[in-house]
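Protocol step 4 of 5: obtain the predicted structure for the target chain.
Materials: sequence only (see below). No template structures provided, no constraints applied. The aim of this step is simply to have a reference model before the mutagenesis design in step 5. Sequence pasted as it appears in the construct record:
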Amino acid sequence: MHAGWVIRVLGPIDVLTPEGERSVGGRRRQTLLGALAISVGHAVPSDRLIDVLWGTRPPPTAQATLQAHVSKLRRLLGRDSIASFDHAYELYVAPHQIDAIEFERLVIAAREAAVDPARCQALCREALQLWRGVPFGELADVDPFRLEALRLDELRVCAMELELAAELELGRADLLIGKLETAVAEHPYRERLWHLLIEALADDGRRIDALAACARLRDLLAEAGLEPGDELRRCEEQIARGTWQPRWVS
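Step 4 output (structure tokens):
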């Protein structure tokens, strides 16, 4: 594929070039490019692609129409971007030319850099800036994209948690509380986000609000038939006794 071009699937499927966005075409061509992108590095049998494009009732012209769609994608991406052999097609692009792969690489790097909060935060921000909406756009709820969309969204929330934890490590609790309140409202069953909210409130000296957040988490756990863990008990005890120490205090 042309240098500087990126296939984007972290939102509606399209192509980003140095000159701007380029449309892939209609729903079937988007589906074809998405199917090749999630299988990058592997050949996808044409029968599988026909099934993805038309389901169990393909038209008699399905094979020819598939070849026509591939030809149009080659004209867009470059002649050598899609190889064909043995009744199969394979997308040939560098890993960084697919935004989902680059996103995952950045999140892995951020996890490895967790001991350096500033670098971890920067990597998370770079990763999250690649997102433009629901992965695969309007195709997110159909096969073969459904499970991959869910996996990517789970990784997005993990990246968000990493970024918030890194920012808390940097002593920015006062700036985080609003973000964390929004995060727990959007993801009420992510205990990690609750713990970050409790810590941010405690770090900011808001002991009553921190204990209230502990109580909200306890209620949520009780509704699910779960007992609070040791970390929540420890936080409550230290906050109530006034012995809480922000993690960034040396």
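Step 4 remarks: The longest helix spans residues 146-169. Strands lie at 6-8, 14-17, 20-22, 44-45, 82-85, 88-91.
Proceed to step 5.
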